[in-house]
Amino acid sequence: MKQDLIYAFEIMGKGMASIFVVIILLTLIVMLMAKISEARNNNSGQDED
Q: What is the superkingdom listed in this entry's lineage (predicted)?
């Protein structure tokens, strides 16, 4: 019984770590997309002047 509980905690820990990594990855992707969008908007504004 105790071994099953330890095994369950290992699986739960891996799942929680995976979710944390995915959230960080999505945050970085959104930040990168915002910077790319900002750079495009700045470049298009310079072309009109």
A: Bacteria
| Nearest alpha carbon to residue 32 among 21, 24, 43, 42 | 24
3-state secondary structure 23-38: HHHHHHHHHHHHHHHH
In a domain, 16, yes or no: yes
How far apart CA 27 and CA 47 sit, in angstroms, is 31
Q: Is residue 45 part of a domain?
A: no
Which 3 state secondary structure label does DSSP give 37?
helix
pTM of the model: 0.71
Cα torsion through 27, 32, 34, 38, rounded to 10 = 160
